[in-house]
User: What shape does this take?
Amino acid sequence: MPSALRPATLVEPGSAPCRASVRTPLGRMDVAACDEGLVGAWFEGAAHLPDFRAWPAVRSHPLLDRAADELAAYFAGALQVFRTPRLALWGTDFQRRVWVALESVPWGQRTTYGLLAAAVGSPQAVRAAGAAVGRNPWSIMVPCHRVVGANGSLTGYAGGLARKRALLEAEGWLAGAGSGR
Assistant: This one.
């Protein structure tokens, strides 16, 4: 499956991001996009939020509307793979490789930080992979909630562990069940 993440490092000055809020069963999410792609989707109060106060709030934007529709379908159980194009405005090369690798973890499955580090060619960089997962700007859409500790435990999630647990339960993953990737 091709990645929806476009490997861009900068956005042209004429396409500054705009933002909107989306209500979800797990709380409000702020979504941001520019004409080239969705630049982020964050739960209210999440760790590592960018300062997007300068980005104009809008009622409608094609990519923000699409992201909101996809989030609604996901929470209704009707969507497993997000297709809204994404654009990385920030992140190191390593972080971006981790974010692309996260896209390969299917709905209802999980992986570990160690397996994720190995998948991007850096098996010794488990902590760095964990930090990259925590900085993922597209919560849910790039499924960082599907990453668990080596022993299967629920570990950090920028949106909070209660949300991570709820997302994994909604995808049919129960503690002690399922298989690692």
In short: The beta strands are 5-6, 18-24, 27-34, 37-43, 86-87, 111-112, 147-148.
